[in-house]
Amino acid sequence: MRNIRDLIKTVADTALSVIIYGETGVGKEVIARELHRLSNRRDKRFVKVNCAALPSELLESELFGYERGAFTGATRFKPGKFEIASGGVIFLDEVGDIPLRLQAKLLQVLQNGEFSRLGGRDVKVNTWVISATNHDLASDMRETRFREDLYYRLNIIKIDVPPLRERREDIPPLVDYFIKKYRSDLDISEDFTIYPEIMDLFLQYDWPGNVMELFNTIRRLMVMGDWEELRRQISSEPDTTP
Questions:
Q1: Structural domains in the chain?
Q2: How many Cα atoms are found within 13 Å in the side-chain-facing hemisphere of 55?
Q3: What is the DSSP secondary-structure string of 35-89?
Q4: Spans of the chain below 50 pLDDT
Q5: Other CB atoms closer than 10 Å to residue 153's CB: what's the count?
Q6: Which of 66, 100, 207, 211 is the least buried, fewest Cβ under 10 Å from its Cβ?
Q7: pLDDT value at residue 125
Q8: What CA–CA distance (Å, rounded) separates 41 from 15?
Q9: pLDDT value, residue 70
């Protein structure tokens, strides 16, 4: 993680395409926002698009916008996220889920900063593209589910975020951070702490949901205090280490 922090500082002002790889819950969006915060675009917009959350037709209009009358129901002009983020950052979460049909249009933006809104008008933008995925895009490329040219265009700077089970030394400081962060928000007593035997369980557990699962577990304990139930759940989880 120290290497990742150093890499973030190195590339934050380059505007080179960055792709962040990692399992669900490892904190890919946190890294994207840190890149934005440390860049010379920090005062401009950070626009997130979850590429897995929308069907192909809606995703296209969300990314690239449309002109009035471009399709039935398009009663007004709508700018796309690339246009809104111009001068700043667009974060394409789950970029591996973008349909092949749209990948060519995304490639055009990455190559020359131009695209066409639905309805025909050409648009020029200056948008830093940061993407993230839990896919193995190299494998998707070999199986023709992901364009080769787009793959190499996105992979100029690659950041691999290891799962929490591979960096267990991060668990205690993360626990301390979450407690301090939410103690006042949740109106929790200053003497709230994680018992040593619970921390031992945390260090042994594989955290399939990664940092997000740890975060939610700490919040649950701070609110519910159901230590015994948590102990039973963690102790009974099967080992999922490859």
A1: 2-160 (3.40.50.300), 164-236 (1.10.8.60)
A2: 1
A3: HHHHSTTTTS-EEEEETTSS-HHHHHHHHHEE-TTSSTT--S-EE-HHHHTTTSE
A4: 239-242
A5: 17
A6: 100
A7: 95
A8: 9
A9: 67
> Which residue type is seen at 24?
T
Interior angle at CA 85, CA 83 and CA 88, nearest 5: 135
Q: Which residue has the tokens 């896919």?
A: 135
For residue 27 the two structure tokens come to 């904190």
Cα 124 to Cα 113: distance, rounded to the nearest angstrom? 6
Question: Do 198 and 227 form a contact (C-beta atoms < 8 A)?
Answer: yes
To 5 degrees, how large is the angle CA 113–CA 114–CA 119?
150
Distance CA 153, CA 117 (A): 22
Kindly list the distances between the CA atom of residue 103 and the CA atoms of 16, 178, 201, in Å, as whole numbers in the listed order: 18, 38, 44
CB-based contact 90:127 (threshold 8 Å): yes
The values of phi and psi at residue 137, to 5°, are: -65, -30
Phi and psi at residue 187, in whole multiples of 5°?
Answer: 55, 55
H or E element that contains 124: strand 122-124
CA–CA distance, 164 with 167 (Å, rounded to integer):
5
- Please work out, in degrees rounded to the nearest 5, the angle formed at the alpha carbon of residue 26 by the alpha carbons of 6 and 142: 90
Question: Would you list the DSSP string of 85-118?
Answer: TTTSEEEEETGGGS-HHHHHHHHHHHHHSEEE-B
pLDDT at 237: 55
